[in-house]
Amino acid sequence: MDKKVIIYHLLIITFFSVSGQETKKSFPKAVEENIKFYNVYSNVAYEKGDLEKGNYLFDTLVNNQLAGTKFQDYTLKKIYGGKLKLSLIKKPIVIQTYAAWCILN
Question: Cα separation of 55 and 46, whole Å?
Fold first, then answer.
């Protein structure tokens, strides 16, 4: 295997495997600290048509940097009026988001 490829993979693994497990990092902070690196390498992968590497980078970002982070105490609008703070919800919740630029497989 080419030395550059090995070094590239080691850098990615090292970068993404350093996680703030000592204290729970906020989700926005984790995104801010990692998104530029992810964007650079994933854009290159997707431009080359390497969906496997792009998906690997995304999974690595999510699993090693974003999983376990804490959302800020956002206030949500209720469907039938009123507001609700995330901190008042005592059950696990799923927040589904969508962006038009997302790549669909």
Answer: 9
**CA 67, chain centre distance (Å):** 8
pLDDT of 47 over the 60 cut: yes
Dihedral sign (CA 32, 37, 39, 42): negative
Domain range annotation of the chain: 3-70
Taking CA atoms, 33 is separated from 30, 66, 67, 91, in Å, by 5, 11, 14, 28
Compute the half-sphere exposure of residue 39: CA atoms within 13 Å on the CB side of its CA. Answer: 7
pLDDT digits (tens, 9 = 90+) for 75-85: 888 889 999 89
